Amino acid sequence: MARPMNALPEQGTALARFAQELRTLRETAGTPSLTAMARHTGVSAASLSGAHQGTRMPTWRVVHAYVSACYDDPAKWRARWETLRAQACLPDETAAGLRAALADGRPLPSAAITTAGQLAETLDLVRRTRGLSLRAIAQHTRYYSHHTYGQALRGARPLTVHLVIGVLSACGITSPQTVMHWLTRLAEVQPDQTLTVHRYRAELEERARRVRRPVPVRGQPRRPGRPLARAA
Questions:
Q1: From CA 67, how far away is CA 3, in angstroms rounded?
Q2: CATH no. for residue 81?
Q3: In sequence order, what DSSP letters do the residues of the chain get, joined into one string?
Q4: Percentage of residues in the chain with pLDDT exceeding 90?
Q5: How many domains does the chain contain in total?
Q6: Are residues 150 and 197 in the same domain?
Q7: Would the CA dihedral through 94, 97, 101, 106 be positive or negative?
Q8: pTM
Q9: 191 and 204 in one domain?
Q10: What is the pLDDT of residue 231?
């Protein structure tokens, strides 16, 4: 009989979420013992145990063995592990800089962010810093369900322009300049969103032109325009 697993150290981290997903997979497989899993895969029980502890980044070899021992397809877990590795490598100065920017009212994504996984982790850091739950995000924006936002922020599904705008809006970040900073970084780390970002920028510029366009006062004669050229 398998021994009960220790409680995860921090429920809100990407590493803890990944560890919880491994635990759920193991339970679905009937909770095989670590000894049996080690015998099946050739990876030590200690290494397999470390994968679901949520305290350190597991190697792909260990994750592959863990998933195989639980009768699942490791190929389906490769993208999750890649995303976790990117999030786990989020530089400390990025998180610290973001918290400082939030305190100053200028939450801009750091130039140190180079992957979509890091951008998702940073966006989730904004959400957590604001103290908002995923349900609160979904209720505020009405774009997507809280499940969809959760998947995107933990890297289980790609970020989109509307997902980023939805989270920022719920967090009270609505300045067009700030939103475009985030979307520009999204296009850099996720090129398939580039066209949508360009369209959104064009919409913002058109709105700005409408605001600047003078409205004629009633009774005030309009300035005559250039006469139309007569057709030859």
A1: 19
A2: 1.10.260.40
A3: -PPPPPPPS-TTSHHHHHHHHHHHHHHHTT---HHHHHHHHSS-HHHHHHHTTSSSPPPHHHHHHHHHHTT--THHHHHHHHHHHHHHT--HHHHHHHHHHHHHT-----TT--SHHHHHHHHHHHHHHHT--HHHHHHHH-SS-HHHHHHHHTTSS---HHHHHHHHHHTT---HHHHHHHHHHHHHH-GGGHHHHHHHHHHHHHHHHHHHSPPPPTTPPPPP-PPPPPP-
A4: 39
A5: 2
A6: yes
A7: negative
A8: 0.54
A9: yes
A10: 47
Q: Which pLDDT tens digit goes with each residue over 101-137? A: 666 666 667 677 788 888 888 888 888 777 788 889 9
The mean pLDDT of the chain is: 82
How far is residue 113 from each of residues 34, 61, 163, 169, 225, measured CA to CA in Å?
37, 26, 18, 21, 51
Structural domain harbouring 40: 14-88
How many residues does this entry show for the chain?
Answer: 232
Residue 182 has pLDDT above 90, yes or no: yes
